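Here is one chain, start to finish.
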Amino acid sequence: MADIGRRVLIQIIPKFVFLLTYCWFATCRTVITGQEHLTHSFKNQPVIISSWHYAIIFLFHHLRQFPAAVMVSTSNDGDYIAELVSIRGLKAVRGSANRRGMRALLELISLVKQGWNGGLVADGSQGPARKAQAGVILLASKTGRPILPVVWSAKRTVAINSWDRTLLPLPFSKVNVEYGEPLFIPPKIDSDQVEEYRIQLEELLNKSYQQVWQICGQESHDGLEKSGRDSDE
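Its structure:
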């Protein structure tokens, strides 16, 4: 009976979240930095979109016009996210560091080669936050597609009590979105090169992250609630 109830909730809750966030985020004003990187990258699809985990909920909405296959955790919470991803017209590939990780990465590689855009959070499903993992580097190397880094900030947000403090911009907020320069990874790289490019991606994302949060007068999104700054520009 409990399993039946959970399956029902998995069908209902993501639909409610989809409608809520669509209406919610539609009230926000988005200001984009690095539009040229976005435009150039999508001229020759597919691309691999990568961000830090805190940013994923808004990015699902912001990038909704670009069909993509995205990695979703195999956790119980991931079941809800996978359904939400499907409702948004994306393709969920289930995997995490602890379960089915390599198999999921191979599936994602296959889909990108078939023409799907790829979506993979750089710091993975369990962190540490804002520390890049090797998965997105391997995906880019195996497919020959560029990694497009993207982050966002807003002065008025609400945080989910998670390991990375996943954020949502409050209604009618100004959301600052920054696209970084695409990162191309050569094929057939060895383990030392994987580490070199992993560090390079981490630095690119953190550079954009710091820049976009400085717009809000913050060093990071983690301290927003402590700062007392809650007025939009």
